[in-house]
Amino acid sequence: MPELPEVETIRIGLEPIVVGRTVTDLRVLNPRAVRRASEGLEPLRGATIDSVVRRGKYMWFDAGDISMVAHLGMSGQFRVGGGQNPHLRAYLLLDDGVRLDFIDQRTFGHLMPDEFTKTPDGAPGGWGSTSPRVPRSIAHIGRDLLDPAFDIETVVRTVKAKNTEIKRVLLDQSIASGIGNIYADEALFLARVHPRRLTNRMSLGKIRDVYLAAADVMRRAVAVGGTSFDELYVNVNGASGYFERSLNVYGRDGLPCVVCGAAIKREIFMNRSSHFCPACQRARHVRPLTRRVQRVK
DNA sequence: AAAGGGACCTGGCTGC
DNA sequence: TGCAGCCAGGTCCCTT
Asked: Are residues A111 and A215 in the same domain?
């Protein structure tokens, strides 16, 4: 499940492979892998890649007037290819003979050629970029927590004004991007906030704590190459990350809390699992459970 | 308008 | 042994 740290690891791995290279050929093996399937990836043919940029979980190849946006979804991978893989969805052939494969078992990921639009704040479009522009289709995605132009005070005020639960807002990529289910649970644990806590019942300081915790956990995950559970997330060379051993709550339901020893709880919320310590993250200022269908294991 | 919930997708795993 | 059903979750889209 690639979130910001995993995508950043892949972006770093892609840079020496694609920057300065020209796309000499390309092929789409599964039309689901490309948005705007009518034109496919053809606009990339002949383009020279100047940089690989990331905002949240999105990446793009900056190739002059055109970009190729990439989202890995649940299981997308870029691999230096040539080998056989039943989940190979598309590939680019570069002018040095390298074949860059896009592999995606669950097919939630996609590639897409796109044009640029200017960033409203005049800052570079994302990590790895020096130009103030972003692909049009992802202009609505918020800056991520590790972006130098990320404005935490604006985000904190936006979150406070919402009438909903904190975890739902953490996963809203238009407010702050890059956070997925794993790091949302980890950030809430570190900030000692229940996932279903209502944001308009939180102080500005507490909301800030949650976002600072999310930034901290992602920064530490980037440093060790992200989190790997299985072969679905690996970097461009096929190697795994090491952050799984640092997870405090995610996937630890029933095991003792590392702080207080209480059993970590797993609860279904937003059709996903939430993992939290019921003692460290008390259910204060949450909506009554009767308002929603709940299944607790 | 904002909020919330389901669909999409595949393969590994569980339990009968 | 075989197979049905569950589970993983990022994002889009529809309904309220």
From this structure: no
Nucleotide closest in space to A1 (CA vs C1') = C9
Cβ atoms of A111 and A135 within 8 Å: the answer is no
Tell me if A145 is assigned to some domain.
no
- Distance of A268 CA from B15 C1′ (whole Å): 22
Q: Is the dihedral of CA A129, A54, A144, A5 positive or negative?
A: negative
Per-residue flag: A87 CB under 7 A of strand B: yes
Residues A76 and A157 in one domain: no
Q: Are residues A76 and A175 in the same domain?
A: no
Where on strand B do bases come within 7 A of a protein Cβ? 2-11
A160 is catalytic: no
Q: Residues A53-105: pLDDT tens digits?
A: 999 999 999 999 999 999 999 889 999 877 888 999 999 999 999 999 999 99
Question: Does residue A233 or residue A129 have the better pLDDT?
Answer: A129
Encode pLDDT of A20-52 as tens digits: 999 999 999 998 899 876 678 999 999 999 999
**What whole-number distance in Å separates Cα of residue A25 and Cα of residue A155?**
42
Q: Which among A138, A169, A199 is the end of a domain?
A: A138
Domain with A178 in it: 152-291
Q: Distance (Å, rounded) from C-alpha A126 to C-alpha A67?
A: 13
Q: Which of A157, A201, A220, A272 is catalytic?
A: A272
Structure tokens of A44?
């990339």
How do residues A157-197 score in pLDDT, each as one tens digit? 999 999 999 999 999 999 999 999 999 999 999 999 999 99
Distance, CA of A228 to C1' of B7, in Å: 27
